[in-house]
Specification:
Layout lengths: L7 E4 L5 H12 L3 E6 L3 H13 L3 E6 L5 H15 L4 E4 L14 H23 L7 E5 L13 H21 L5 E7 L12 H8 L9 H12 L10 E4 L6
Parallel strand pairs: 1-2, 1-4, 2-3, 4-5, 5-6, 6-7
Helix pairs in contact: 1-7, 3-4, 4-5
The structure holds NADPH dihydro-nicotinamide-adenine-dinucleotide phosphate (NDP).
């Protein structure tokens, strides 16, 4: 029997990048997977169709993480389609980098709405349905511990606040035997942070392994945390960054 054969997973932001890799991994390991997208409708529908063709059970849900009602509805739709929710992966995220003086209140509101508020809203909506053994896994960033350089204030602030969220919620949900953890990737080759750029060369110079990570690297860790083997890990931050923060 596959590892997640009787499990339902919701991944936010599964249309591209790390979220798409996490979606693929859970499908390969037997789970029913609902995933959200915002702008990338074609990519989301193509991913879902490909996975379903090869025997997977997926649905792609249009849900803007910046809109709380969209997030709640995505949880409700997952439960309606698959009969429950066992694992929530809060992956959707955005990066806004610019000189501090140029940040606007709109930038602040947008990044906090997507990177932080949506995580809070999705978790609260999912917990209503989550059984013992449930998992809440959020994708933070190694920048939660290490602001890499200038122009990162907003993003770093948003990812650090996920640490407080993870600590608190792990204690709130411990009695329900639901674990809550934060995965903190370093540079991963996606649209958000493509390898082969000038910035990438700078980032590589700071890493012990001097190579970009892949979505699959992150999906492997998420899968481990979500499995039975991860049952004693909660309130933890797992940094997976090729030694960037070493
Ligand atoms: P990408 O930009 O490649 O993909 C982002 C994904 O999030 C897309 O599927 C996108 O969907 C979705 N998304 C963005 N905004 C929204 C929104 N408002 N509502 C719903 N979905 C949304 O990013 P990555 O895959 O690189 O990043 C995934 C996560 O990993 C993020 O939380 C990011 O902060 C984190 N991370 C990434 C690192 C990296 O180096 N790549 C390093 C550390 C952390 P759509 O296209 O449909 O709008």
């Amino acid at each position: 029997m596959k590892k997640f054969a009787d499990k339902t997973v919701l991944v936010t932001g599964g249309s591209r990048g790390i979220g798409a890799a996490i979606t693929r991994r859970f499908v390969e390991e037997g789970a029913n997977v609902a995933f959200t997208y915002n702008h990338s409708k074609e990519k989301a529908l193509a991913l879902s169709a490909t996975l379903n063709k090869s025997g997977g059970k997926t649905i792609a849900i249009q849900a803007n993480s910046a809109i709380p009602n969209d997030v709640t509805q995505a949880v409700e739709q997952t439960v309606k389609e698959f009969g429950g929710i066992d694992i929530l992966v809060n992956n959707a995220g955005i990066y806004i980098g610019k000189p501090f003086e140029d940040h606007t209140l709109e930038d602040y509101d947008e990044i906090m709405a997507v990177n932080v508020r949506a995580v809070y809203v999705a978790s609260q909506a999912a917990v209503k349905y989550m059984p013992a053994g449930g998992r809440i896994i959020t994708i933070g960033s190694n920048m939660g511990d290490n602001a890499v350089g200038p122009q990162t204030t907003l993003y770093t602030m948003s990812k650090s606040s996920l640490q407080g969220f993870t600590r608190g919620l792990a204690r709130d949900l411990g009695s329900k035997k639901i674990t809550v953890d934060l995965v903190q990737p370093g540079p991963v080759d996606t649209d958000m942070n493509p390898a082969g750029t000038e910035l990438a060369n700078f980032l590589l110079s700071r890493m012990a392994l001097a190579e970009y990570g892949t979505g699959d690297d992150i999906a492997g860790l998420v899968s481990f945390l979500a499995s039975q083997e991860g049952k004693y890990i909660t309130g933890s931050f797992l940094t997976i960054d090729g030694g960037f923060n070493a």
